Amino acid sequence: MYKVAFRLFVVLFAFRSWAQSDTTITLQAITGLQFDLARFAVKPNQKVKILFKNEDDMAHNLVITQPDKRLLVVETVIKMGDKAQAVNYVPPMPEVLVASKILVPNTTETITFTAPATEGVYPYVCTYPGHGYVMYGAMYVTTKPLPLLATDPNIPPSRQTLERIPSSPHPFPLEYPLLYRTFMPDCSPAAIAVALSASHAYCFDAGKCYLRYAWRGGFVDNTDHWKGNGNALGKIQGTIYFKDNVTYPLRVGKADKLPEVDFKGYTLTNRLPTFRYAIDGVEVRETLKALPNDEGVSRTFVFSKPTTQTVYLVTQPTDGITYKSSVGKWQNGTLTLPKGTTKCVVTMQAPPVAHGAHHGH
Amino acid sequence: MNSPKSRGPHKRFLIVYFLVQLIISPLFAQRDTITNYYETEQIKLPKGLRAETGGMDFMPDGRLVACFHLGEVMTYNPKTKVWKKFAEGLHDPLGVAAISNTEILVMQRPELTRIKDTNNDGVADVYETVTDDFGMSGNYHEFAFGPLKDKDGNYFIALNVASNGAGIRPEIRGTYDSLSRDGRMYSCVPYRGWVMKYNVKTQKLEPYASGFRSPNGLGFDAKGRLYVSDNQGDWRGTSPLYHVEKDKFYGHVASLIWKKDFPRVKPLSLPVEQLDSMRTREAIAFPHTEIAHSVTQPLLDNTGGKFGPFTGQLFIGEMDYPRLVRLLMEEVGGQMQGACVAFGDGTGLLKGNNRLVFDKNGDLWIGHNDHGWVGDEGLSRIHWKGKVPLEIMAMNLTKEGFELTFSLPVDAKIAANPSLYKFQRYYYKYHRPYGSPKTDVADVAVREVTVSPDGKKVSFKLAELKAGYVYDLKMGELKTADGKLLMNRAIYYTLNKLK
């Protein structure tokens, strides 16, 4: 028994040390001149295998350069003119650490190399002429935590919200805002999950006609829900920062009377949904937008006619959200909108995103 | 064990047999097959599409519009073979009806939705809830089917019951009632297990008919009669097709609790005889494994002969076999009943034949699905090559038996032989357990066979005819004088009423 346990220990230990010494990274060229991964980390001298897939509909390559040499390499390729194509747009220069061939769409190349011994930020870039100014990322060679994504200067500014862009399960690329009607937790079965961006989302209840909760850090994973007959719930990716614990927030006429609700659908403006519903016959259009730096959402309520009764928005003062409104008065967490209101913008400010010390993959 | 003596003749027989085979095999190479008449082509799909097809229709401009399990609505231009996104984000859409080149109706789990492209960029921007006036418990089995537009512009939809394979969610939509939670399939929120009619004038969803389990297929016949299919299961001895009329009850008991004036009793507590007397029987029972496992959408051949000789008949899809089924119905004693016969076997069709639609050229498009069960994914198109195969065009009940009508004259010498026809009858039990075995199976003797002078009709006098049975006819090799073979030699008649 002791012997068996010892052997098991040896095997596990060997496996562990092997797993620590090698790493495999899957990196994809995706639509919009970008890599799906904005950055990744490897350790000094680690054996690295990159499975580079071109999922885009144009040709790309992958070139890893010495620190701060991305633009030099990119511009050298442009200066080479017609001659660059013969060398896969990879100039013969010591600033290039490792490179793939030019991959046509739907092809894959595996690149294996040993990470540099010197810690640092090694850019990766597509050197196909014109691409390299925007299509790049950062390979961190380090054993330390990575800096905050939101302020990482080594990745494209457009990627400072999301480390990895999820691959699309559809016959078209994912674009944001993005909406799924699906089964969601803590919602009626008529749920709508909306991603304002790849890292900021909310759940609107189309059965009960109100915002149920909002979260940051990702969207929703429907993989299990879409398997077979659709029994599983969609999984929230990220952290919920707001949850409506009030039975129903909007009231007409009396602050303590729950209204009859009727869902009417939604319209999309540049993909952003505006929900249409009626509360006690009062027609409402509600649009949610992200506040700057994803510090919450703004909710714009538009009434189809100037209201003829007082409308109330009831919130829970202890829910951690700072509420402000363009119209009306707040008292004990309840907003009173006077008769004649046609539009009201309510901002819901949450504490800033708690950035954990992200490590690579 | 053969004795040594018998080996000699056997050997000689084998040699002769192989010689004969050698001589006649070229004849077999030209044997009449379905591919002489119909061909099936698989449509190339866009990259990244999981083609679990929930619905299909054609827009007026000839583009196919199809919806899929992951919520996409795509259009396909058959001329340019280009796929484009029209809408996305829907919840398990299982039916689509094209209204115009920029507007469609989609039945998704939570609602019937009108989807419009109002800024003409090719992608929908308005999603209007037409009706969500039915309950959802959150149980996965509460699928929603339709919409089917009638001549007055109203829409029929059909709502599945829930499965005891899963529970309900903490939050539901609609009024909860536990009265029919017992049993395999249950209805605990309003109108699960019902066919509903959306009245365009009142803009209200009206309960239309009850007693459904998994009604994955709605269609009209040439006279505008509504048909709805269902699946083998509890209260479904085998998969049926119902002629659906207002306020009638079609056998699955869970939905009865939502019927107006129905007493506050558990439907399962009622005697089966009483439930049986309340129900309307299926127009066609599809004998399980004989011809189908899970029938889907019925579709009228309204091509005016562009798809072959079957104009005015209904086709219906089938999930588990690579085939469709053709329906030959007639009115007997004021009720629809009739026969079903296979179609499309051997044309290269896949399984999972969930949705059917004809294009303007008379080609039949098939949307495949598996949805976690048996089936296939993708889209196919069946094209008629212009020649008429030998097929059964009608099976009519007579006072003493049946009369078959063929698409072409059959060789009377062959067809007049009674030993060519084997009739059997059986029924499927109406009861609570899942499915039913063939019950009271018996061979039925053929007393007389008559071939009409033009060779197009063969009639049978049978030893016995009983209502409430399926009459199962299997035939030998019938052919025309010029050697065309009968393509499908098994046919099943659901005899509810005698003549």
TrEMBL record, chain A:
Residues in the signal sequence: 1-19
Blue (type 1) copper domain: residues covered: 30-141
Keyword rRNA-binding: no
Keyword presence, Metal-binding: yes
Key words, A-Z: Copper, Electron transport, Metal-binding, Signal, Transport
Molecular functions per Gene Ontology: copper ion binding; electron transfer activity
InterPro entries xrefs: BlueCu_1, BlueCu_1_BS, Cu-binding_ET, Cupredoxin
Protein name: Azurin
Lineage: Bacteria, Pseudomonadati, Bacteroidota, Cytophagia, Cytophagales
From TrEMBL, chain B:
Domain DUF7133: 85-246
Pfam family, one: DUF7133
Gene3D superfamilies: TolB, C-terminal domain
InterPro entries: 6-blade_b-propeller_TolB-like, DUF7133
Taxonomic superkingdom: Bacteria
Protein name: DUF7133 domain-containing protein
Organism: Runella defluvii
Lineage: Bacteria, Pseudomonadati, Bacteroidota, Cytophagia, Cytophagales
